[in-house]
Q: What sequence folds into this?
């Protein structure tokens, strides 16, 4: 029963959270903390912290964590399934429509505008990540002095090595793993 | 099955599952990071998709409700191998965080305070940064190679507005789509 409720509640969250990531946080908080008291506010903030540190989208992490707390492993599976079910149905419907009618003029026009936009957003995400990796902050420090202060040479070394490896078309997953190992090795020195 | 999706063999599904699972398991960062890594795998390494399709579907994934990484895996999986492909990619995307968080939920304190975990995650973050930069450079260079045209202008304007002025993503996506649409109308009318 509780698993059904978890599935249903997270399906609703999955359906209405547009804009992803942080945009969906208040919605999840409202349902999980205030309506159902599945988690305390401080546990919810913990999820937020964990999500910053670990792989995986914050929505999925919150669903899993809340489900686990409420009903163990079956709960976490039910909540996660609920969260992705609306996406699955909607995406398949839109994809079907898109592959059938995607080559008509109007849609091609819109896509001509969206393709460079996606490239721009990938660039912006990349630069934010450079700031996060090298200076441990969401944005670049405002002054040269602040930059020098916050600069992390070990991270810069890992980034440079990983970039060299990526230019040589080395397997993406090997690069990620090697970066993690390097992070531990350099940090322990 | 849609005529746009191809029949695939067991080997394909295994490769799709494993590569998506590992990317999802080891990538710290949001939707556009995952998209870049999936592109590096699916397009650049395996040749399952083209640049253009991937960007189209990324735009679609961004505009749909739900988590972008999840939407992207569903859409790309569907494009490559129909519903079975979508299910395979979705499962492979969702399982790693499900497993990770279920384990962490048991021992959150030990996890959060472990210096080794923190160092490894920081290292992987640097790795993901390098990979997204690499994909970004490739994509920008391709666009640049076509000379100064409307897509290049849209690219630069969107980047500046998003990165320096924090303009909301949804607004940018809607405006860019509209600009593309109006431009095509205008070009056809000429």
A:
């Amino acid at each position: 029963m509780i698993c059904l409720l978890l599935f249903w509640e997270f399906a609703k969250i999955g359906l209405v959270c547009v804009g992803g990531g942080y945009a969906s946080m208040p919605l999840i908080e409202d349902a999980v903390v205030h309506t159902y008291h599945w988690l305390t506010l401080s546990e919810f903030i913990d999820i937020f912290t964990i999500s910053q540190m670990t792989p995986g989208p914050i929505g999925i992490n919150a669903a899993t964590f809340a489900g686990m707390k409420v009903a163990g492993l079956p709960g976490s599976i039910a909540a996660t399934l609920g969260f992705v079910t609306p996406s699955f149905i909607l995406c398949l419907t839109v994809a079907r429509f898109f592959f059938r009618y995607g080559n008509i003029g109007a849609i091609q026009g819109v896509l001509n505008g969206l393709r460079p936009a996606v490239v721009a957003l990938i660039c912006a995400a990349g630069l934010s990540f450079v700031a996060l990796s090298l200076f441990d902050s969401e944005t670049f420090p405002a002054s040269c002095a602040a930059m020098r202060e916050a600069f992390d040479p070990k991270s810069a070394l890992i980034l440079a090595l990983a970039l060299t490896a990526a230019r040589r078309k080395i397997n993406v997953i090997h690069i990620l793993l090697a970066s993690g190992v390097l992070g531990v090795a350099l940090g322990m020195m | 099955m849609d005529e746009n999706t191809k029949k695939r063999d067991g080997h394909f599904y295994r490769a799709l599952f494993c590569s998506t699972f590992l990317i999802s398991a080891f990538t710290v960062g949001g939707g556009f990071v995952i998209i870049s890594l999936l592109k590096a795998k699916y397009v650049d390494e395996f040749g399952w998709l083209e640049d253009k399709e991937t960007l189209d579907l990324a735009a679609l994934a961004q505009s749909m409700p739900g988590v972008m990484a999840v939407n992207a895996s569903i859409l790309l999986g569907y494009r490559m191998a129909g519903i079975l492909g979508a299910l395979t990619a979705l499962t492979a995307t969702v399982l790693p965080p499900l497993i990770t968080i279920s384990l962490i939920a048991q021992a959150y304190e030990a996890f959060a305070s472990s210096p080794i975990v923190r160092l490894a995650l920081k290292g992987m973050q640097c790795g993901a940064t390098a990979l997204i930069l690499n994909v970004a450079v490739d994509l920008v260079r391709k666009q640049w190679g076509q000379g100064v045209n409307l897509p290049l202008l849209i690219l630069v304007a969107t980047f500046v507005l998003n990165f320096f002025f924090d303009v909301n993503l949804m607004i940018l996506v809607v405006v860019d789509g509209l600009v593309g649409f109006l431009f095509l109308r205008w070009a056809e009318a000429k």
